[in-house]
Amino acid sequence: MSHPATDLLPSATPVRYLAEDGTTVDGPAGYTQPSVEELREAHRRMVVGRRFDAQATALTKQGRLAVYPSSRGQEACQIAAAMVLRRDDWLFPTYRDSMAMVSRGMDPVEVLTLLRGDAHCGYDPNAARVAPQCTPLSTQTLHATGLAYAMRRKGTDDAVLALIGDGATSEGDFHEALNFAAVFEAPVVFLVQNNGYAISVPLEKQSAAPSLAYKGVGYGVRSEQVDGNDPVAMLAVLHKAFEHARAGKPFLIEAHTYRIEAHTNADDATRYRDSDEVDRWLDADPLARLEKHLRSIGALTDEDVAAAQAEGEQLAADLRSRMNAEPHLDPMTLFDHVYARPTTQLVEQRDLLATELKAQEG
Amino acid sequence: MAATTMAQALNRALRDAMTADERVLVFGEDVGQLGGVFRITDGLTRDFGEQRCFDTPLAEAGIVGFALGMAMGGFKPVVEMQFDAFAYPAFEQITSHVAKMRNRTRGHLTVPMVIRVPFAGGIGGVEHHCDSSEAYYVHTPGLKVVTPATVNDAYTLLREAIDDPDPVIFMEPKKLYWSKEDIELRHLDEPLGHAAIRRHGKDATLIAYGPSVPVALQAAAAAAEEGIDLEVIDLRSLVPFDDDTVMRSVRRTGRCVVVQEASGFAGFGAEIVARIQERCFHSLAAPVIRVSGFDIPYPAPMLEHAHLPSVDRVLDAVDRLQFTDEPDHRYLTGAHS
Ligand SMILES: Cc1ncc(C[n+]2csc(CCOP(=O)(O)OP(=O)(O)O)c2C)c(N)n1
C-alpha cells in the first residue's frame, strides 16, 4: 500500500484553533492558518448565511416552502465548504446544504425551488458547478467520486466536494465511494457534517467508531476530524484536504457540529433531545466565536458587523418578496425531459393532458 | 465467412464503439484481464489500454454511481453487471439517479450510459445466476430497455445503445451468447425503439423478445407443418415500445400470444396484452394469451426446463386461440390464489 496507516489517521481529538470564547488555542501543526482577510470574509458570509437560513425557515411558516431543513449552527461547515471551492470545482450538496449553495453565489430562489416544490432542481448544475441537492442518502458521494475521476482523466486540477451527514455514513454507497475514490485516486473531499442526529437517532446508535473520520482509514483515504463550529479549523483542514485532492488523493473530514433547529420544520426535536443539550451547543456558536476572535485581534468593527447584517437583511427581503410571487407552472412540462425524444406513449399521454386542461378552461 | 457468435458480436460492438468515440469507457467486475465472465469484453484492455477498459472494486452500486459521475463529466460509460441477480445492489442508483437525472435537472444534466445485464435462464446456472429482471427496469421512466435476439441485433442494438442520448439497460440473453450466424455485422444506425417482424404470417401473432424469440420461431415453424401460419415479432426494444408494429400485426391476424421467460404476474407481457386489448379489441377473435415462466423464484438448474416456456407450451397456447371460449387454466399465468 502506498500509505503507512499512521499517515491516514485523524488526530486523536478534533482539530481546533479557536476556543468557544473566541480565544486561540494551540491546534495541531501541519495546517496553514487562514488569513485574517479570509476570516473576515467567512464572518460576513456566516452572518448572511444565517439570515438566509432564518428567512427560509420563516417561509415554511408562511406556507411558501413545502419543507426546509435548517443548517443553523452548522455555518462554519457550510461557509468553509463554499469558500474553499474554486470556480470550476464541483459541489455535491444534500437537502441540508442550501446555505453552502447560496454562499457559493447561487440565486437563493433557484436554490429553494426544490423545497418550494415547483421543480426537482431549480438551477443549471453545469453552470453553477453544483449537483442537484441529493435526498437519497449518500448516493451522491459516488457521483462525486465518478465526476472527480472524470475531471482528473481530462487533465484538470479541479476537485469535488461531497457533503454528507453523520447518519448517511452508515449507507453502503458512502463506503463504496470511499473505496472507489482511493482506488481510482479521485480528487474528491468528503465532508461529513456530524450534527449529532440522523432525524431522531443519535450518533451513538449510528456508529461505534471513535470518530467517523476513522472510516476513511480502512479504505486508504486520509482522514481528519475537526471542530465543526470553529471556522478557523474548518478552513485550515478543508484547504489541506483540497490540496491533497488536487494531487489525486481523496480526503475524508468529520466535522463535529450541531443542528440547532429540528431536522426540518416538520420535525419535533423535543421528542429525542433536551433543551440543556441545545443550550450547551448554543454556547459553542460558530458565528459568535469567530466574531469574538476577530474583534479581539482588532480585525472586526461594529461597522463591519452592521454591514454584514445589512447585506443579510437585503438578501432576506429580496428572497421574501420573490418567494411571494406564485411560480408559473405549466403541467404540460411534465412530459419534458423524460427522454431526449418523447416516446410515442408519452406523446399520447401529453395529448390526453392537453385535452383535459382545455376542458377545464372551457 | 466464419460464423459469428452473439458474444463475439457484442465484443465487436464494444470495440467499434470504443474506436469511433474516445469517450466510450468499459468497466465493471472482471472485465479487464479476464474479459468478463462471459468474455464479452475479451481483449479490450489489451487493445485499448487500462484507461479505456478496466476492473473496478466489487460493488455494483459503486460501479453505477461512479459511472453516473463519469457521464456527468463527459464520458460514455458502458458498465457490466456480472449477472442479472447481482445487479440489485445497483438498483437504487439506477432508479433514483440514472433514470431521473435528465428529468430532475430539466435537461441540463444528461447521463448517457449503458448498463449491460446478462439476463434470463437456460444455461444451467446455480441460484442467483439466472433471473428475468426486465420488468423492474421497464417500469422506471427515464430508462430505455433493449434486448437482442439475433447476432446482428446484438451488434447493432449495442452500438445504438451506446450512441443513444439516454441511459440504456442492455439485457443480454445468456443462453444466446453462443448462438451463431453466418453474417457480416451491420450497424443499422437507427434510433432504438423498432420491433422486427422475424416471420410473416396471417393466422396469429407471436410476440417475443430476447431469449424467447428463438422459441417463438421454432413454434412457428412447427405450426407451419400443421398448416397454421404464424407471424413472429421480435420486440428488440421494450422501452421505447413499438406499438405501431405490434398493433398492425395483431389487427391483421386477430389473434396473439405473448411469450416471455419471466414470471407472468405483473410482468412485461401483461403490459403488452393490456395495450393490445385497449387498441385492438374489435380486431380480436380470441383473448390474448400469455405464455411465461411460472410465478416462482427462478428454479434450480435441473428443473429450469419445466419453468421456461417451451415450444410445446407456445403451441398449446396457439391451439387455445382456435378459438373456444372454454376456460383452460393451465396456461393462464398471474393468478396468486
Ligand atoms: C436512503 C434514504 N433513507 C432514508 C431517508 C430518509 N431520511 C432523510 S434525512 C434522514 C436522516 C439523515 O441524517 P444525517 O445523514 O445525519 O444528515 P442530517 O439530516 O443530520 O444532515 C433520513 C433517515 C433518505 N432520505 N434516504
Compile the SSE list and pairings.
The complex is a heterodimer of chains A (362) and B (337).
Chain A lengths: L4 H4 L27 H26 L13 H10 L5 E3 L5 H6 L4 H9 L8 H4 L10 H15 L6 E6 L6 H12 L4 E7 L2 E2 L2 E2 L11 H4 L4 E6 L3 H16 L4 E6 L18 H8 L3 H11 L5 H23 L19 H18 L1
Parallel strand pairs in A: 1-2, 2-3, 3-7, 6-7
Antiparallel strand pairs in A: 4-5
Chain B lengths: L3 E2 H15 L3 E5 L15 H5 L4 E3 L4 H13 L3 E5 L10 H8 L2 H4 L9 E6 L14 H5 L5 E3 L4 H13 L4 E6 L6 E2 L14 E4 L4 E5 L3 H14 L4 E5 L2 E3 L3 H11 L2 E8 L4 H13 L8 E5 L10 H4 L3 H10 L17
Parallel strand pairs in B: 2-3, 2-4, 4-5, 5-7, 6-7, 10-11, 10-13, 13-14
Antiparallel strand pairs in B: 1-8, 6-12, 9-11
Thiamine diphosphate binds next to β4 of chain A.
Task: For this entry, give a set of tags.
heterodimer; A: 362 residues; alpha/beta; five-stranded parallel sheet; 14 helices; B: 337 residues; five-stranded mixed sheet; 12 helices; 18% strand; globular; binds thiamine diphosphate; THDP-binding (chain B); Alpha-ketoacid dehydrogenase subunit beta (chain B); EC 1.2.4.- (chain B); Transketo_C/PFOR_II (chain B); Transketolase_C (chain B)
**From the helix content, strand content and strand pairing of chain B, which structural class follows?**
alpha/beta
Shape of chain A: globular
Report the average pLDDT across residues of chain A.
96
- Low-confidence segments of chain A: none
> What fraction of residues of chain B sit in β-strands?
15-25%
Strand content of chain A: 5-15%
Oligomer: heterodimer
Task: Name the hetero compounds present.
Answer: thiamine diphosphate
Summarize the helix and strand pattern of chain A as letters: HHHEHHHHEHEEEHEHEHHHH
* Average pLDDT over all residues of chain B: 94
CA gyration radius of chain B, whole angstroms: 20 Å
InterPro entries (chain B): THDP-binding (IPR029061), Transketo_C/PFOR_II (IPR009014), Transketolase-like_Pyr-bd (IPR005475), Transketolase_C (IPR033248)
Domain Transketolase-like pyrimidine-binding (chain B): 4-179
EC number (chain B): 1.2.4.-
Pfam family, one (chain B): Transketolase_C
